[in-house]
Amino acid sequence: MSISQSATVSDEIRQAWHNASVRPLWENPLAHKARTGGPPAHLWAWRELEPLVKAAMAMTSMAAIERRVLTLVDPAAADDAAGTTTNLTAALQILMPGESARPHRHSMNALRFVLDGAGAVTRVDGRDCPMARGDLVITPGWSWHEHAHHGSAPIVWLDALDAPLHRYLGTDAFEPGPAHDVPSHADEAAFAMPSIVPELAEPPPAHSPVFRYPWGEAARAVAAAPRWKDGARRVRYVNPLSGGAVMTLLDCYLTQIDPGAETIPFRTTGNAVAAVVEGHGASRIGETTLRWGPKDVFSMPHGNWISHQADGGPARLFVVSDRDVLRRLDLLKEEFGNAPRA
């Protein structure tokens, strides 16, 4: 049957297609069509999230729910299992003083970036990682992790995981505690000297041997960084043994936008989620302009031209990306220049 005849396909043929589990390509509206942009970006404003965070504190018990988590869901996604943007899921996790979250592990890589509060600890493969505002703690795939809060006020952090990618590939797996067969790791002090790393007796893991990246060190580094290709100052959280991403499927950056500066438009095949650490500003992502402030979270989906502007003083964004996944698959494309305007 020719394409020109497809409009008159009989019900009998359509039922035969269904019974045989086949679908005609010529009826797929996405087939042989060039994409002109990326999925829409979205902003989760703290002024809207904060009341929901407080409500979650009041209405849920850790004894009943394992983790007190509010997942940030892409409103444009039709799939109920969709993440925050392509390949990435982000969420807010809340822990109250005196609470703890039981240990578990999973194939997905995850990270914790503290938005508000202090006094909690994430234990990663038996190593305690203190948590305070601006700290990054990583929990690589299949590492045992649990949380405990010894402070005096609630703590809220951004969770980010590569869960959508694992679900798509069919590699998502989970194991509850108690922890067992916990691997040993070199002391993090061995990696604390700039440009010097230890010679390890065993082959190192694919992820960073450093599980905690303190805010003070990251803030000093980005303030001293030269301007990147788009005009912002940018530093990468790295695996000190390889100079690469902290985890194999999650890549993390801290970006500083200087006062009054507007970055050069940038487009990539990668996807990212940003959390505003300090400052106020706006981001143009495709046809969408998002105005943001501290503790806001927003998505930067692939294929969109992106530019940022700071209002008043400098602004700092923590960014988690799937960029290194695309690079290793030879699918990463990055462009800098003038975004087309309608």
Describe, in plain words, how this protein is organized in 3D.
This protein is α+β, with helices and mostly antiparallel strands and 342 residues long. It has a single domain (44-336), classed as Jelly Rolls, CATH 2.60.120. The chain is built from six helices and 20 strands. It has helices at 11-20, 46-59, 62-65, 163-169, 215-224, 323-328; strands at 43-44, 69-72, 89-95, 100-106, 110-116, 118-124, 127-132, 136-139, 145-149, 155-161, 174-176, 212-213, 233-237, 251-257, 266-268, 272-285, 288-292, 297-300, 306-321, 334-336. Strands 1, 13, 14, 16, 17, 18 and 19 form a seven-stranded antiparallel β-sheet that branches. It has a six-stranded antiparallel β-sheet with strand order 2-3-10-5-8-12. A hairpin with a 2-residue loop joins strand 6 and strand 7 (127-132). The longest helix is centred in the N-terminal third of the chain and has 14 residues, at 46-59. It is globular and about 70 Å long. The two termini are 40 Å apart. Residues 1-6 have low confidence and may be disordered.
Task: List strands and helices in order, with pairings.
Elements: H1 11-20, E1 43-44, H2 46-59, H3 62-65, E2 69-72, E3 89-95, E4 100-106, E5 110-116, E6 118-124, E7 127-132, E8 136-139, E9 145-149, E10 155-161, H4 163-169, E11 174-176, E12 212-213, H5 215-224, E13 233-237, E14 251-257, E15 266-268, E16 272-285, E17 288-292, E18 297-300, E19 306-321, H6 323-328, E20 334-336
Antiparallel strand pairs: 1-18, 2-3, 3-10, 4-9, 4-11, 5-8, 5-10, 6-7, 6-9, 8-12, 13-14, 14-19, 15-20, 16-17, 16-18, 16-19
